[in-house]
Structure formats: structure tokens, C-alpha cells
Design brief:
The protein contains 8 helices and 12 strands. By secondary structure, the protein is of the alpha+beta class. The protein folds into 2 domains: about 90 residues, no CATH class; about 140 residues, no CATH class. Helix 3 crosses helix 4.
């Protein structure tokens, strides 16, 4: 496992202090075997929508909104059932609430949306001592707050935006063991060394097993949201399932090497960003060099959040 804050792994502790060694090995154990499963569920019974109406959206218990003072440093935090924001542009709050990773995914925004800044303190009812509100629920609460206080009205619509297609160049993939679980996870494979220990600037290590290229393309946006702002299509033409490892730098490390935050993943010519002089490696270069694949840009329709209406000033507290 990767070293923690003390700089030593549990394997090293056992070896150096107790003279014991952790060695991975295959042992028999009970497992659940899936004999058959349908990808699509059976239709809902008739009348179920009437019997089970959708629950009302979750809301903050209390919220205080006021215009920011001039020159306030933008900052925001959503955790522990609270939203604390200072000098935060209203546009940023909308992007957070709808998980929009790029400006192209928001349409119909009035010009003042970037400059309108607010201080917001909102608190959710946790439902009792020790209860926590998860981040996804908090995002829904932020949506409800924007609808209630700023009279925000939106709809989703497919519009052409710049998106990526995964293509094959000279694939470097290992045929998967079919008995392995299909997944991509952060960290090394069992029994292998963590490449991040030797080269910390390559801070992301994604190990995929028994993955088709279509599944990998579908997961890329979630695996690297700082790089990928829209769903990725599989254009490799590669069939079957594969095992592979992807080791690259977090997008913030590339930005420190000269790429502006708005340009992460793109160079001035519209091509994917390349490695930094500081040794950082972009997701795009890693996919090309380590997997023999390539992410190519193209315009295609993807779901975009369209603002139909929003008030410049919130209703009173």
C-alpha cells in the first residue's frame, strides 16, 4: 500500500519492526457467483407512479444570503450538512450544484452571472446526533436554494459541445482474466508496487481489470473530471475485455506547470495538453504512451443545462 503521512507502509512496519512479511497469495474462499442477470429491469407495474409520487427535493433548514463585500476572496465549502461561501460567483454555485465540469455545459447564462458574488451560509437538518448529510444530497439542497431564493428555472437540452472520442493507435493492453471483477480503482493491483512512491508527481494511479473499451470510455469522465468535461465515446473498435494501468498527474499539477485552469487538457491549438517541464504527465499523454490509445476532440450533442430564468437579487432572508 502507499505510504501514509509518516512515509512508511504497513508492510515496511511489519518487516522492519516485527520481522513479519505480508505476501499476497490465492486462497479458496466463499464467493457469490452470478448465474444470470438482466441489464434492463422489468417495467414498473401500472399505477406505481401514482402510488409512489416522487419525494420533494431536500432543502436547507436555514439559509442566509447577502451580497459580498467588494474585493472579497472567493471561497466555498460544502460539507457536514453546511454550505459556507464567501465572494462566490453565482455561476460557480450553479456549476457545483449540477456537477458541470466546463463552461460549455451551461447555456443561457446572463452576463452578470459571473460578477454577481454572494456570501451564503446554509445549514441542513441532520436528523439527529451523529447523522450526516451526503454530498450528493447537499448538491440537491443547493439547487433547491437557488430555485427558491433566486427563482432559478432551468431545463436540460442536448447541444453540440467539444467532447472526446477514445481511439486506437498502437494498443498496449493485456487480455483480461474473465474471472476478475470488472472495475477501475485508484491504486495498484494486488501484489504490485505503487508507482506513485517512485514518482509522486504522477499522483493518479488507476488500475482497471476486465474492462471493455466501451466501459473504460464511459468511466473516463468520472475518473478524471478535471480533464474530461463531457461523456467520452468509444471509437477504438477493440473488442473484448482488458487489464491495464494508467499513471498520470492530477490536473492541478499540470496547471502549476503553466496551463491555465480554463485550458486544462487543451493547448492553444485545441489539441490535448502534453507533459509539463516539471515532469507532470497529462491524462492524454498517459493514455497515448501507456495504453497506445488516443483521445480525439470532436463536436457532438451532449446534455447541457439551459438557464430559462434567474433573478439578479435573492429574496429576503
Amino acid at each position: 500500500s502507499q505510504a501514509g503521512a509518516d512515509g512508511i507502509t504497513i508492510s515496511d512496519v511489519l518487516d522492519k519492526q516485527l520481522g513479519l512479511k505480508l505476501e499476497p497469495q490465492k486462497t479458496p474462499g466463499p464467493v457469490i457467483v452470478v448465474d444470470n442477470v438482466n441489464q434492463t429491469p422489468t417495467p414498473n407495474p401500472s399505477g406505481v407512479a401514482t402510488s409512489l409520487p416522487p419525494a420533494p427535493p431536500p432543502e436547507f433548514e436555514v439559509a442566509d444570503i447577502k451580497p459580498s463585500l467588494p474585493g472579497a476572496t472567493p471561497m466555498g465549502r460544502i460539507q457536514n450538512g453546511r454550505l459556507d461561501a464567501q465572494g462566490l460567483p453565482l455561476k460557480n454555485l450553479i456549476m457545483i450544484a449540477w456537477e458541470l465540469n466546463g463552461d460549455e455545459l451551461l447555456a443561457g447564462a446572463p452576463k452578470w452571472l459571473d460578477s454577481a458574488r454572494f456570501d451564503i451560509v446554509a445549514k441542513a437538518s441532520t436528523g439527529g446526533p451523529g447523522a450526516q448529510v451526503d454530498f450528493d444530497t447537499l448538491r440537491l439542497m443547493v439547487r433547491a436554494l437557488l430555485v427558491d431564493r433566486f427563482k432559478l428555472a432551468t431545463h436540460m437540452e442536448d447541444r453540440p459541445v467539444t467532447a472526446y472520442t477514445l481511439t486506437a493507435v498502437k494498443p498496449k493492453l493485456q487480455k483480461a482474466a474473465p474471472e476478475n471483477r470488472t472495475r477501475c480503482k485508484e491504486g495498484p493491483a494486488l501484489g504490485t508496487k505503487d508507482a506513485r512512491d517512485a514518482n509522486p508527481i504522477l499522483s493518479r494511479l488507476v488500475t482497471c481489470q476486465n474492462m471493455t473499451m466501451a466501459q473504460f470510455a464511459e468511466q473516463l469522465q468520472g475518473l478524471a473530471p478535471g480533464y474530461i468535461h463531457a461523456p467520452v465515446l468509444d471509437g477504438t473498435g477493440i473488442d473484448g475485455a482488458w487489464d491495464f494501468v494508467l499513471n498520470f498527474s492530477a490536473v492541478g499539477l499540470l496547471q502549476s506547470g503553466g496551463i491555465r485552469p480554463g485550458d486544462a487538457g487543451q493547448s492553444t491549438g485545441g489539441a490535448p495538453a502534453t507533459s509539463d517541464p516539471n515532469g507532470a504527465l497529462s491524462l492524454f499523454d498517459a493514455i497515448n504512451k501507456q495504453l497506445g490509445l488516443k483521445l480525439e476532440t470532436q463536436k457532438r450533442p451532449v446534455p447541457v443545462l439551459v438557464i430559462d430564468h434567474i433573478e439578479e437579487k435573492p429574496t429576503d432572508n
